[in-house]
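Holo prediction. Input below; ligand is XIL.
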Amino acid sequence: ASTLGGAAAAKGRYFGAAVAANHLGESQYAATLDTEFNSVTPENEMKWDAVESSRDSFNFSRADQIVGHAQGKSMQIRGHTLVWHSQLPGWVGGLNATDLRSAMNNHITKVMQHYQGKIYAWDVVNEAFQDGNSGARRSSPFQDKLGNGFIEEAFRTARAADPNAKLCYNDYNTDGQNAKSNAVYNLVKDFKARGVPIDCVGFQSHFNSQSPVPGDYQQNLQRFADLGVDVQITELDIEGSGSAQADNYRRVTQACLAVSRCTGMTVWGIPDKYSWRASGTPLLFDDNYGKKPAYQAVLTAL
Ligand code: XIL
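Structure of the complex:
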């Protein structure tokens, strides 16, 4: 196949991009999205601050734009994200435990039901663990007020809200085997053992010189898959340029293809100019939507 989405589909996978609603009106942006990708993740538009900036008052207009566009092109959609410490409106942090629990469950339920039948997989909980060697949970209103059980509660609520969506845990710096990924691994293992609903684990895969593609990336994806969940590369970007960047993208692509339960990969943006990274060129298309060596490497590897 001659496109990323087409080549991935031939291997039974999807190839997605993070999409921002405010770029959809740019013809080259939309054309590249529509030609090359068969999955989208709204980059910011489904986050708590975007859809529920005040309690129980929901605004889905920007997210609906992306969903409408994707559905018009028969693309899959990843929902991102329901419970996260960041991009969380201030009112959430001000609630007591009882109100926070009901606000969390209400948020999950209302957002998922709005998109029922349209979302392939949801990042139910994002980034709940600390970096470093502790393997501990990250401080957040959810962790601090509801305790360790908030993740389980979020997943149980999500399953009830939309039984047909795949439910993922998503995080970064979990791409290789380390204390943080071990902590996520133990969470998933425990959920599977106790019948807590979880279907997939997302590996954000934001790579740069400080955080390179781990040597054991494929093994790490495989050990999660062996627990009985799908794995997905959810926010891929790799700092660099030229053949070095291309080699890294090739390795990531090959790692996903080598793991039968790696169901797809998503790059975190389309042209470099719209990357969330403040500087650098971490994506597959240059500022003029030209295909970079990294693009060719991915397409060839698929
Ligand atoms: C980023 C977006 O790309 C930016 O536009 C926004 O300002 C901040 O969030 N991990 C995640 C994503 O799960 O939601 C983040 O997206 C990048 C890190």
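The beta strands are 14-19, 39-42, 76-83, 121-126, 166-171, 200-203, 206-207, 230-238, 262-267. That is the main takeaway for now.
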